[in-house]
Amino acid sequence: MIDCRTNKTCFLRQYHSYLPLLWRVPPISFFSIKSAILTLTLALSACGGVQSTSVPLALVRPKLTDSEPLNFALARSPVPANVSRQGVDGGKYAFDSFVHAIEFAPMTKDTFEQLKRTYGSWSKAESSVPFDASRRYHLEDLLPPMFAAFLNLQYQEDQGDLALPDGRHLPVRTLANCWGVAYEILREASDPKQHLSIFYAHDNVMKAFLADERYSHTVRPYSQDPQLFQSKARRNQDLKPGDVLMVGSQWLYHVAIFIDDDLFFEKSGSGDKTLFRFVTYDLLAQAWKPEVFGWSFRRFDRQVLPDPMTLFGIRQVFPDAPSLQSLPDSLAAELSAAPSTRDPTFPFILVRRRTFDLSNSDGLAATKSTMNMIPSH
């Protein structure tokens, strides 16, 4: 099995956004000088449909360019849909250059309700989009609210200093990764929320959570068998909307949510401006070849999931770190962390979660943080 720390293609997809997190930087000896420069450039530049124009500063609505119709059918839909692939201005790679639009013609109320059951019955959080016989619905209109809220948006990172009560300032970032987004989708599905968090989820903790039999069970065990993925019918067999794709076994490389045959929802990476989007099997397999990385699927049983910070918070992930234990409770409840070798006296990068209000009729709204963030210059 290929290790992303030593494979250039994988590294460009997943780990260019992690260069500031020095605990995962591969030795430079694995790359040419040209590749190293390219990777550093990517790190500096990077690693969703809301109908209204209201988008909080943490999210960016990218400029879409050309649109290409796809010969792609929704296997589980009783009616056809128009599927197109749209370019994203400024994108350079498959994981930041494309989004997909999936539109239905006006339909009857019975068809509308059938589609909502087909694509949303796995979740307790139901779409609140009303029926209108003249409306051309999009697939996200039929899914749980978090999909429609974030689809085709880009998460915008920032960084600054965290002002502590004792006068100290600690550097802090906002960072979101694919499995943190997947966790919140699953949490909303288990217990509908009006407020959802975008945060950094430690990969080892997420891997353990995904394997926890209290919450989910295996639908498709881990496999790198190319014969399993060559046939569309076989690779989608036994899967249902809401199932969770896990890429990798020893290492967790990527997580996505199964929507329909050969169609997934993902946050396409961990870096700045990466996309919340629908993605087709061809693009996903291009980035994460199943015969190389191995894929598995799990199905969640709608058991209520805890607040993410009870799993991914700094005191849970690094319980033996005295420098983190000294943080006030109100701050610790807002933070996750990743190891860093930058400062031996504080060997972590603090990552702040952002919370969004899905009940805002004008679109997403970022709720006020309990932290005093001082922008860095």
3D structure, described in words:
The protein folds into three domains: 38 residues, no CATH class; 96 residues, no CATH class; 219 residues, no CATH class. Strand 15 and strand 16 form a beta hairpin. The strands form five sheets. The chain has a six-stranded antiparallel β-sheet. Strands 15-16-7-6-19 form a five-stranded mixed β-sheet. Helices cover 27% and strands 25% of the residues. It is an alpha+beta fold and 377 residues long.
Q: State the major sheet.
A: 6 strands, antiparallel
The side-by-side strand order for the widest beta sheet comes to 9-14-10-11-12-13
- Helix/strand/pairing class, anyone? alpha+beta
Question: How many distinct folded domains?
Answer: 3
Q: If you compute it from the alpha carbons, what radius of gyration comes out, rounded to the nearest whole angstrom?
A: 20 Å
Number of strands: 19
Helix segment count?
A: 15
Q: How helix-rich are the residues, as a percent range? A: 25-40%
| Mean pLDDT reading | 80
**Low-confidence parts lasting 5 or more residues at pLDDT below 50?**
1-55, 367-377
Shape, please?
Answer: globular
- Could you tell me how far the N terminus lies from the C terminus, measured between alpha carbons in angstroms? 42 Å
β content, as a range? Answer: 15-25%
Oligomer: single chain
